[in-house]
Design a protein that fits this description.
114 residues, 5 strands, alpha+beta, 3 helices, single chain
Length: 114
């Protein structure tokens, strides 16, 4: 899930929020913390995408396309299982306005289509 010993303090502060959101919306929301310093997933809760902590983040476009307030999305994706997902990503910045992480929520919205 989340290894605090390998993460910066900013990501550690957001881990409880990530866990709370995934618990509230279980099993429909996957929450991911990305560490921009390492380019890896720092933590993932309710991992229905098959991704795991420690894997490459693959989120290059998010920083470039994040709008006002550091929010990217919502945007739609289709999972490997064919289900429709809607996602939103927040850029996490330190006190010097340096982007250090990403907080992503991926919602399985296929049940709304049914």
């Amino acid at each position: 899930m989340f290894d605090a010993s390998n993460s910066n303090a900013l990501l550690v502060r957001h881990a409880a929020t990530a866990a709370a959101i995934s618990t509230l919306f279980y099993p429909h929301a996957e929450v991911v913390l990305h560490d921009l310093e390492t380019g890896r997933i720092a933590g993932i809760w309710n991992a229905f995408s098959g991704r795991k902590a420690g894997m490459e983040s693959l989120v290059e476009e998010v920083l470039e396309e994040a709008g006002e307030g550091g929010i990217y999305g919502p945007y739609e994706k289709t999972g490997e299982d064919g289900r429709r997902r809607k996602s939103v990503t927040a850029v996490l910045k330190d006190e010097f306005d340096q982007a250090l992480g990403l907080f992503c929520i991926n919602m399985d919205v296929s049940h709304f289509d049914a």
